Amino acid sequence: MVRCIKLYLKTLRTGGMRGFESYETIIHSDTLFGGIVNSIDYLGIDVLEFIEKVSSGEIQISSAFPFEGEILSFPPPITSLKKGDLELKKKFKKRFLTSDGFISFLETGNLTDDSFVQEDFALKKDDTAFVTLDRTTAASDFRVLTTIHFREDAGLFFLIRASDGDFRKFIDPAIKLLGDEGIGGERTYGFGQFDRYEVEVIKLPKLEERNVTLSLSIVNPDSMITYDVIRRGGWVFSRKSNAEYLKPEILMLKEGSVIKNDTGIVIDLDELTGNTSKIVGHKVYINASTFPVGMVGE
Description:
There is one protein chain. The protein is of the alpha+beta class. It has a domain at 2-207. Helix content is 23%, strand content 36%. Strand 4 (65-68) and strand 5 (71-74) form a beta hairpin. Helix 1 packs across helix 5.
């Protein structure tokens, strides 16, 4: 069963991005996973059981994308468009697909102008430029911090595949806590909080030989068809430790990448670094599992 969880956010703080470009208007699946894991652990729920279920594919978590009212937006699939599809390539850039447009493209490969919404259709963004100094080398770096303001009946939604029991045990209580604590950057200032959320069941195309993943993921190279990549890193947030720990940068497939049937992985950082848990005081996991949706047309 696929559930759509709408978070009615007021503001969201994202950023720290190098350069002059504005930051993204989504919350990536690895960030959502981290927020849910921290909430589950704080509530005394078995966090290792949850991580095992995500790792096995019993629970799947998408990234969170903008919505307004009944309009849900999805990332365009990353496909090998023909040379004559130059106009379509232009439309794909910096735009989302409506749910009808997304499903139509997956099933038939066809799109119309009504299939698209602008990236900022449910929000507005304020960018603040600043310079950072490296704590060790004192080297300077230029970055952009983005504050996102959502419209009255808007926010971000994400999708969950889980049994009724797993949703009640893990997801629902975690979302309630995240509403109070917030998600994203600078939560202590109230960013990323939401006072209501809605859950509804939605229908998506069944899995096929080719699938579009709606989460950041790492899959077997043989499973990669058409894709783009993104670097992920950042600081570890922990309620159990005051240690400052910067995660190593990891390359992941971006949302919209087309893959074969592959569940992806959940990464234990100790297996990469050998000492993360010694520094932080506990295990740190990164979600790189897939959220696949079947794709027939192109």
